[in-house]
Amino acid sequence: MSVWGKLAGVTAGYLVGGIFGAVVGAVAGHYVLDKNDEDVAFAIALIALSAKMSMADGKISNKEFSAFREILHDLPENELKNVIKVYNLAREDIAGYDVYAKQISSIFQNNLHVLENVIDALFHVAKADGPVNKNEIVFLEKVAGIFGFSAADFARIRASHMAAENDDPWLILGLEAGSNLNIAKSQWKKLAAENHPDKLISKGVPKELLGMASEKLAVINNAYLKIEKAHKMKAGSGEV
C-alpha cells in the first residue's frame, strides 16, 4: 500500500490524538519509527502544514490546494480523498502550525534534507495565489526556525523560490555576491547533487513527495548559468 492509502487509517487516529495520533507515541520518544511510519508521518506533516500555510494570508483559495496537489508525485486519483480528508482536518484543527512543525522536526531531527523539502513545498503553496506576502514569509521563517535552519539558510531557500523578485543568483547558491567562480561552481555542484531526486530519496524524502525536486534543481542550475554567463561577459570586456 502506498503512503497515500495509509492515510485512511490516520483519520481514525485523529479522533484519539489529533492528526498525528497515529504516530504520537514516536514523537514522544516511546519508539523509533520504521521507514513506512516515517513516510506516513512526513506525508501528514506536509499536508497539515500546507493546509495551515493556505490560511496564513487570511484567505482560503482553491489555487492553494491545486498548488499543494502539484507537489505530490504520482498521487493516484483513488487516494486523493484520503489526502483531502487530512487537509481539511488540519484546517479545522485549533492547534497552531507550530505544533505540526515541532512534531515533524522531532521525527526528522538532524535530517535537514527532509525538512528543507517541506519548506520547499510550503513556498510552492504560498506562491499559488499571488506574490508571497509578509504574513506568509513570517509563517515560513518561523517553521524554518523550528526545523533548525539559520537565517542564512532561510535566505537561500527563500531566494530559490523568489528569485524573480530579488534576481540574485549568488543568494540562491548561498554565497556572497562576486565570489570566485570556482567557489560558485563547487557550491552549484554540491547543491545540485543534494537536490537530485535519487539523493533526496537516499536521505529519507519519500519518493511520493518529490514533486518539487525538478523545479528546485532547475532554479539552482539556472543560478549558476547566470553567474557563469556574467563572468564570461566580464572576462570578455577585460574586467576580470
Structural class of the secondary elements? Answer: mainly alpha
Order of helices and strands: HHHHHHHHHHHHHH
Largest sheet features: none
Low-confidence stretches: 22-33
What separation lies between the terminal Cα atoms? Answer: 57 Å
Question: Which word captures the global form?
Answer: elongated
Work out the helicity level. 55-70%
Radius of gyration: 19 Å
Whole-number tally of structural domains: 1
Q: How many E strands?
A: 0
Mean pLDDT: 77
Helix count, DSSP H or I runs of 4 or more residues: 14
Approximate strand percentage: under 5%
In short:
This protein is an all-alpha fold and 240 residues long. Helices cover 67% and strands 0% of the residues.
Key words describing this protein structure:
67% helix, 14 helices, mainly alpha
Walk me through the structure.
- With 240 residues, the protein is an all-alpha fold.
- The chain is built from 14 helices and no strands.
- The chain has one domain (7-237).
- α3 (35-53) packs across α5, α7 runs antiparallel to α8 (134-147) and α12 packs antiparallel against α14 (213-237).
Write the topology of this structure.
Blueprint: H1 7-17, H2 24-27, H3 35-53, H4 62-70, H5 80-92, H6 97-107, H7 112-126, H8 134-147, H9 151-161, H10 163-166, H11 169-173, H12 181-194, H13 197-202, H14 213-237
Helix pairs in contact: 1-5, 3-5, 3-6, 3-7, 4-7, 6-8, 7-8, 12-14
